[in-house]
Amino acid sequence: MTTRARPRRGDPALGTIAVVALGLYVLFILVPVIMSAWKSLTDENPLLAQSRFVGIANYTEMTHDSALAASLTFTLILAAAVTLVANAAGIGFATLLNKTSLSFRVMRTVAFLPQVLSGVIVAFVWRYLLAQDGILNHVLLSLGIIGQPVTWLGTPHLAMFSVGLVAAWVLTGFTTVVHLAALQSIPVELYQAAMVDGAGRWKRFRHITFPMLAPGTTISVTISLITMLKLYDIIAVLTSGGPADSTQSTALYIIQLAFTDDRYGYASAVAMLLLVVSAGIALTVTSLLRRREVEL
Amino acid sequence: MTASTEPRTAAQRPAVTATAVPASVPRRGLRAWATKGHLVAAGLITLAFVSPIYLTLVNAFKSQDQIISNPAAPPAPPTLRNLTDALSRPDRIIEIGLSNSALTVVASVLLIIPLGSAFSFWLSRRSARFRGIVLGGFAAGLMIPPAVVLLPTIRILTFLHLDHTYPGLILANVGGGYLSFAVFVYSGFLRSIPAEIIEAATVDGAGSLRIWWKIVMPLLRPATATVAIFLSLWIWNDFMNPQFILGPLKGQTITTGIYLSVGQYSTNYAQLFGVMLLAAVIPVAGYLALQKQFIAGLTSGASK
Amino acid sequence: MRHTRLTAACIAAGLALLTGCSAASTGGSAAAGGTTLTYLTFETPSLTASFWDTSIANGEKKVPGLTIKKIVAPSTDRDAYAKQLQASGQFPDLLQSITPSTFATAGLLKPYDQNWVNANFMLPMGNAYKGKVYIPPTNSQIIPMVFYNKKMFAKAGITAVPKTWADFMAVNAKLKAAGMTPIELGGGDPFAASMPLVGILSADVLGKDPNWLQERYAGKVHFTDANVEAAVAKYRTMVKNGDFEDGALGVKYADSITNFTSGKTAMYMMGSWFLGSVPKANADDFGSFMTPTDDGSLVVPFAVGGSMAISAKTADPAKATAFAEAWSLDPANYKTLIEGDGAFPMLKGKTLADYNVNVTQVFKDSYSYVTDQNTKVSAFGWATNDDSMPSGLNDAFYAASQALFTSDDVNGQMAKLDAAWDAATK
């Protein structure tokens, strides 16, 4: 860290802006979290004027809420699987596209496109691709890979898979570009030295590329995980959480509890759980990956 | 983030395989083949990867019959019918959605940039300990799933009499995770600005606001580009906030508009793709035009 | 930081934001001097955007100085959307075809003048909730009917429509033996996925005990009771027998309509609104019957409603009521709803001929179930009277219907419904 100018406290103008910024942070992040924490101890219902303090009743209810267990399991498995797949695909894709000729530059440009599109658009287009009489079935049938149309969005397990597929598709755009950038910061000399030592393609990847990608992987994995734990728009449009609530992520469950079931109090308790789980995962994974960076 | 981690330009960065493989004569043919194979493989995988986008593009210019008979074929003959239909809907969902989204994006970003940069500048001059605490808080703000704070946010806006209004939506955008992102990027970038530059200006007697505007902001220009580009994209594509905080009364943004307009009963694929294309064209055009800054922004994050 | 400065800063920032943004906001513009009211509608393949626009325009003409701003629910689940709007402080002034119970209990709805209701409708209390009418009973529906393709039945050698459950199973077997898929199911849309269960539960459970839903509120009966589980098990048996196509949960509601009308499947369990989608060209190929019962007795799952509820918080109750009443009696709406949405009209003292409509034979035959004396029960999950289910239970019921398409765990799903019911009525 560089030395910097002495802290100056007598700056009213800049200080005012700082207060506004901090105030907004407090108002729209800190206060909502505190409000959620407080509401989670009540049985508040937006349709009823009165709400009662119920202690930890909402939290004990969570322990035997099978819908919550299912949504949390789905969310966590989805986050883990998509993060893994999208980052593995991103590393592979980035390695493949790491060339400078025009055609590769065009391909790199296109690879990021899924990230640019709104989740709503992405999900609508995929809903069409994955429909019973959609293009994916069309293609797979004509190639003889499947005998009859697959209901990608129609059975619980396949719908879970499909949500993962679409999310991974979107995230791969991101992970590819991040890893491409990391690849390009690897000094060429390292490879040249390895060549002189007679290292083959795989050895070079394993011992130079992969470790040098670590900082990129850290950021890419962390952001993938956070994105997946937050995921709302793609699921809302692709399956609305169905069929049979199989693709109801915890974020969707909170919204259903709050806005359809009129259970603010319980919704707030589930929100607190999601907050703790997300924070725990993000912190653990970041620190693990940072440690790995050092070790490598 | 420092200058040394900036992405190398294409010219600086020699292609790895080309320089790496010893250019012995017998292997040249093999290498040419390998290169060609690599290109073909990369091309095929990229094509498969972007096929959903390709389908949206070609089908937006095809009739319903053309789409059903062969969804993957190029539009021959192409039709502009879907686009003109989408633009002449009686509810004007595309026109209204685009202008509302543009308004929301511009207002939010114009507020976040000065707020985020000035705050980060102010923060850069506090003690390391204080800075660490504040940045930690903002980092948490980035991670909080929006569903967690959605309900209380609506309550707060209702209390301020700003519920389901554009000022309310914009305020929630400015105060929520987006500001955290801006503070993060600016704070990272500020670390690379030598303190001497600012000290020199202070000696000259310039006030802090003046230093921020005249000296810091120009230095922060790359960070501003990153913040502006990514926030514009995210706010443009945002779905949950407009759906719940804004609601239907004040007109739709482009995402909630297409969500409603192509609803669950639309089996008219031609119209669907026409609407999708129009909704996607602005962010995609923006990305293609500002590609370098996009990648630079991501890179700075990746090598931070 | 001193307090004064902090406050001043906050106020300054707030003002800057407000002035900066309010100039740019594009709120709905009210007609000069008039009232603007919001009206929540929803769209289906037969209730299109242009139907709503026309009917709104007609209603506006009858109420001078009123402008209606239409809000379209993103799905047919307008109850959920109405709640979402309420939760975010935007409860509409008028709400089409919602389930009044939850909203009325919370004091959000204004009942109609009972004299006006009595004067105009055949079954004035047909969908009253706790003795008050929140939605005028303008029309009725049978949910579901079993529609069938006469040609396909003939091809499979079926000569009579099934009366008993055993007949029904035999019909399914014959159709399969003839290489046809017996029943269409638009399982991709949760409400459509629930139709067979609605039919079976209405016939078996409500047919035997019309007060079952009231008793469930009182906690006297449960979904896990043997008679309910036995009824649900019938649906499981149908699924396992292959009476629905394999990928039924991937079929969207809109596609299920075209699949059935184009002869891909022989039967379709759907609300009577499907009558509006029967193709005019070969309408005589289609017939309807009620979900069969074990003993062959006829049970008609019935629901009355068809118009809009009025918000108790509306800024202009007089104009809101005037519009709602005008809409509820507008002959043009009846014509469209009867012809396009298969609605059975319920205006007092009128017969079908009075509506000047052009309807199919299958519509007339189906309408006779309404006018005949027979056992009518509340359509399970669809009635909006005292038999309506608690808030959120419809969603749980739909989810259970979808789950039971792939899962054998009848008891587990019913236990979930009981738990959801108890949580919702706690």
From TrEMBL, chain A:
Q: Name one GO cellular component term.
A: plasma membrane
Q: Does this UniProt record's set of keywords contain Cell membrane? A: yes
One GO term of the biological process aspect: transmembrane transport
Annotated localization: Cell membrane
Q: Which residues form the ABC transmembrane type-1 domain?
A: 72-285
Alphabetized, the UniProt keywords read: Cell membrane, Membrane, Sugar transport, Transmembrane, Transmembrane helix, Transport
Is Transmembrane included in the keywords of this UniProt record? Answer: yes
Report TM segments: 12-38, 68-97, 109-129, 158-182, 210-232, 266-289
Q: Which CDD domains match?
A: TM_PBP2 (cd06261)
Under InterPro entries, the record lists: ABC_transporter_permease, MetI-like, MetI-like_sf
Family of this protein: Belongs to the binding-protein-dependent transport system permease family.
Q: Report what the protein is called.
A: Multiple sugar transport system permease protein/raffinose/stachyose/melibiose transport system permease protein
From TrEMBL, chain B:
Q: Which UniProt keywords apply?
A: Cell membrane, Membrane, Sugar transport, Transmembrane, Transmembrane helix, Transport
What membrane topology is annotated for this entry?
Multi-pass membrane protein
Chief place of localization:
membrane
Where in this chain does the record put each ABC transmembrane type-1 domain?
A: 98-290
| Entry GO CC | plasma membrane
Query: Pfam families per the record?
Result: BPD_transp_1
Q: Where in the cell is it found?
A: Cell membrane
User: What name does this protein carry?
Assistant: Multiple sugar transport system permease protein/raffinose/stachyose/melibiose transport system permease protein
From TrEMBL, chain C:
Pfam families, alphabetized: SBP_bac_8
The keyword ATP-binding appears for this protein: no
Q: Where does the signal sequence lie?
A: 1-24
Keyword annotations for this protein, in alphabetical order, are: Signal, Sugar transport, Transport
- UniProt entry tagged with the keyword Transport: yes
PROSITE patterns given in the database record = PROKAR_LIPOPROTEIN
Which family is this sequence assigned to? Belongs to the bacterial solute-binding protein 1 family.
Q: What is this protein called?
A: Multiple sugar transport system substrate-binding protein/raffinose/stachyose/melibiose transport system substrate-binding protein
Organism in which the protein naturally occurs: Streptacidiphilus jiangxiensis
